[in-house]
Amino acid sequence: MRIGIVCPYSWDVPGGVQFHIRDLAEYFIRLGHEVSVLAPADDDTPLPPYVVSAGRAVPVPYNGSVARLNFGFLSAARVRRWLHDGAFDVVHIHEPTSPSLGLLTCWAARGPMVATFHTSNPRSKAMIAAYAILQAALEKISARIAVSEYARRTLVEHLGGDAVVIPNGVDVDFFAKAEPNPEWQGDTIGFIGRIDEPRKGLPVLMKALPKILAARPRARLLVAGRGDEKEAVAGLPAELRSRVEFLGMISDEDKARFLRSLDLYVAPNTGGESFGIILVEAMSAGAPVLASDLDAFAQVLDGGAAGELFANEDADALAEAAVRLLEDPERRAELRERGSAHVRRFDWSTVGADILSVYETVTAGSAAVAADDTPDGDGWGSGLRARLGLARD
């Protein structure tokens, strides 16, 4: 199968969506499919052979963060050329409502299209106002995927229609088989994320740290990610700042080793999360997980059975739970065991097969649209809806 995948965010500024697209593309390539990914990227950036640059991206505030997007006449021309040259059997667009390549592709493409929605946020006036612009493009989509029930809810509330829920995927064995780094072991707490993005929650963890260190003086916090390190520790007492070690950006291999080395992984994110891929990666590596009780995180952690939850933005609750877990190796071992078993449902062997099934359904269904799949107002036909296991709300 010839598969075209559209990435909305800059390939050279890594994030969860980019990692998902990269791993999905490489999974399909291993299966023998022909895959091309169109993504924003500087033209001089080294790219994998399956990635085509759509030109430089610009930073735009989006969903409580800053996304690097690509939109304009030059981008539209590159989209059309990519579609022409690719002659794809199916085009898979990620975040088609963002002002980037996905929307341009919706406008330009013909034939079977699948869209994945990653975002979870409240109903907004901006989305309501944009609906008239988006509607014509979204009606061309053959099938919709949401990475979680919360991303699906956002889609339904903002745009109507429905989606099949297929979570983000992880190569579980890649993390499970990583070798721990002795330098990162020994009463270590870990955090991975953009340091200066408040919704990733590092300020909440920093606020909790003095109470954690008062109970566990030998503990350390290891932080991986880009951002202003001095600003991150500015609120800590000077004598505690040495207990925080910044690793900067780390490779995928080092991320796996990092997660394998920890006594506790903390995800203090405060909002805007529709899934929680880092939780899946941490569980895959066997790290006990402590996370804020966001709905999406609670779902990934099986309601708290595969990892513990604390009240969102409550630094005292975070500190209390972290100390309790650090002092209870049996409980941490239990979380490792439960997390390792639970995370198998997110392995690419399952997730990739589910996505491929959607591709096969829409490519087969495109030939039968006239017979039983006439669009019914929300971009779905009755036959396609039945084949994907979707019922009307």
From TrEMBL:
Keywords: Glycosyltransferase, Transferase. The keyword Iron does not apply. The lineage of its organism: Bacteria, Bacillati, Actinomycetota, Actinomycetes, Kitasatosporales. One of its GO terms (molecular function) is glycosyltransferase activity. Residues 14-173 form the Glycosyltransferase subfamily 4-like N-terminal domain. CDD domains: GT4_PimA-like. It comes from the Bacteria. Its EC number is 2.4.-.-. It comes from Streptomyces thermocoprophilus. It holds the Pfam family Glyco_trans_1_4. Gene3D superfamilies: Glycogen Phosphorylase B. This is Glycosyltransferase family 4 protein.
